[in-house]
Design a protein that fits this description.
2 domains; Rossmann fold; globular; 7-stranded mixed beta sheet; single chain; Dihydrodipicolinate Reductase, domain 2
Length: 379
């Protein structure tokens, strides 16, 4: 049993803390008293903490064996830096915008392991790709992924399980992908496609900046792309808001008062994106990997469709993101993954034992990928 502190007691952070508490001594911390109350009522040990106060954060994590990060993206980089400076191992799902490898030298200097982007995608998807990249020559990788409410409600037909401000990042940050060995940069929400999925129906995919670390760590793969999935029509509303400037961080003056348009947008839109009590959602992901394995052309397809756990009211996005993170947290806690420095999730998947551990861990929690493989020369 290890002492683990989970930074962030939101919907995903709470699910991770509860899962880890089955085998470890876990403390859940947050500044939001409502989130702490919900965590406490579930039997978790809680502590109020302002993550932006570096000295208080260092003091809070000092006596723990492992830190699990579930803070909003805009706080993620500095939080990870503070954890590293304190000499603690960390597994993180904050998905911050900064390049995590800027902290690599610091992490190695402090002899710590920091697994970044350890959610569903990036996260589970990276672990899968890391596994296959060690065992075949990959020509192409495609990941389509989304988290959606079961009940479609106009106009956005979307709910934010993570920090809503992080969702807006997906709509504004340029999307990068690899095509024929070259990096391509396109605006977010571009290249929309309609795709039909069994048991779900037609969804719309569009370019988002989901490859992240893979662009650096997988230079051998000539074609890689990740696209986000939403209900058809959603992106038109987002494009309108973006083009008018509602997502802008630049201040404008209204009746003598300076405001950031994104602050107004947040006040108006976020309540519409909040999950209602008892509302259910699902996570869908399709991964396709093609290349050569043992001298023959091979294609792998992973299909994930996970829904809210009605028995525990645990959201699907909390399950798929959170349990991937807690699986890796258990690997680090047990010294089964000991690579030092910044370690995006694809590094975890390279070793077969770790890959199997994560996939089995997820399956034991009813998070299951259907895996199909095809020898293309026999197709």
């Amino acid at each position: 049993m290890k002492k683990i502190i989970v930074l962030g007691a939101g919907l995903v952070g709470k699910a991770m803390a509860l899962d880890l508490s089955k085998e470890h001594d876990v403390t859940s911390v947050d500044i939001n008293e409502q989130a702490l109350k919900a965590a406490s009522s579930s039997g978790l040990t809680v502590q109020k903490l302002d993550f932006s106060n570096v000295e208080l954060l260092k003091e809070a994590i000092q006596n723990f064996d492992l830190v699990v990060g579930a803070v909003p993206g805009f706080m993620g980089f500095e939080t990870a830096k503070t954890v590293i400076e304190t000499g603690k191992n960390m597994v993180d799902i904050s998905f911050f915008a900064e390049d995590p490898f800027l902290l690599d030298d610091l992490a190695k200097k402090n002899n710590v392991t920091v697994v970044t982007d350890c959610g569903v995608a990036p996260g589970m998807s990276n672990i899968i790709l890391g596994y296959h990249n060690q065992r075949m020559k990959i020509h192409s990788y495609e990941c389509l992924v989304g988290g959606l409410p079961v009940v479609r409600e106009w106009p956005f037909e979307y709910r934010a399980v993570f920090s809503p401000i992080d969702a807006i990042e997906e709509y504004t940050r340029p999307a990068r992908y690899i095509q024929n060995g070259a990096e391509v940069i396109r605006e977010a929400l571009s290249d929309a496609e309609l795709i039909n999925f069994p048991n779900v129906g037609t969804l719309e995919s569009w370019n988002s900046d989901g490859l992240r670390s893979l662009i650096k760590t997988m230079p051998n793969i000539p074609n890689m792309i990740e696209k986000t999935l939403r209900y058809p029509g959603c992106i038109e509303y987002l494009k309108v808001l973006r083009s008018i400037g509602f997502f802008s961080q630049e201040e404008i003056e209204v009746k003598g008062v300076k405001i950031k348009p994104i602050d107004l947008t947040a006040r108006l839109v976020f309540p519409q994106w909040k999950l209602k009590p008892g509302e259910e959602e699902f996570t869908i992901m399709r991964i396709r990997i093609e290349g050569e394995e043992n001298g023959e052309a091979k294609k792998y397809e992973y299909n994930l469709l996970d829904r809210t756990d009605r028995s525990t009211q645990t959201l699907s996005m909390a399950r798929t993101t959170g349990y991937t993170c807690t699986a890796v947290a258990n690997l680090v806690a047990a010294n089964m993954f000991i690579r030092k420095g910044i370690c995006p999730a694809e590094f975890v998947g390279e070793e077969e034992g770790n890959f199997r551990f994560v996939m089995d861990y997820l399956e034991n929690r009813d998070v299951r990928c259907q895996i199909n493989s095809l020898s293309l020369k026999n197709a």
